[in-house]
Amino acid sequence: MPAAGYYEWTVTETGKQPHFIYEPDAALAMAGIVSAWPDPSKAEDDPEKWRLSTAIITRDSHVAPGEVHDRMPACITPDGYDDWLGGHLDVDALMQLLDRESYAVAHDLEHYEVSRDVNSVRNNGPHLLDPLPRPADESAAHGV
């Protein structure tokens, strides 16, 4: 499942602080599963009888996002797409693939704090990806 990134939260003295975690040079490809199931409220001949559900697989975090959260989406590099989607690997091989690929992706992940507006599903828009301004003393320490 392609994504620009994802949010995780840290607990601070003033409440939960969201962070946007992303790969600076590419979209993330999150490993997921898809399930089709019949909607029992629909007639057998209804073309909308079948529903699709999706879920993103998570793993223990590796390297960069670990300082924000102990879990992360399992991610796959372009080199791993065929193996993930091909249907030719057994469960053990798929788990090894997810470990290897997620580890490779995690090395490139970066994060920054974002507005707490992301905490409400009522809020939507590109501004939710904007980094919070750094305090002046922290900006000076980073040479900004």
Automatic annotation (TrEMBL):
This protein's record includes keyword Amino-acid biosynthesis: no
InterPro entries tied to this protein: SRAP, SRAP-like
Positions of region (Disordered): 120-144
Keyword Cell membrane: no
Ranges of Basic and acidic residues composition bias in the record: 135-144
One GO MF term attached to the UniProt entry: single-stranded DNA binding
Gene Ontology biological process terms, A to Z: protein-DNA covalent cross-linking repair; proteolysis
A UniProt-annotated Pfam family: SRAP
Keywords (A to Z) from UniProt: Covalent protein-DNA linkage, DNA damage, DNA-binding, Hydrolase, Lyase, Protease
Enzyme Commission number(s): 3.4.-.-
Record-stated family: Belongs to the SOS response-associated peptidase family.
PANTHER family recorded: ABASIC SITE PROCESSING PROTEIN HMCES, DC12-RELATED
Protein name per UniProt: Abasic site processing protein
Source species of the chain: Rathayibacter rubneri
Source organism phylogeny: Bacteria, Bacillati, Actinomycetota, Actinomycetes, Micrococcales
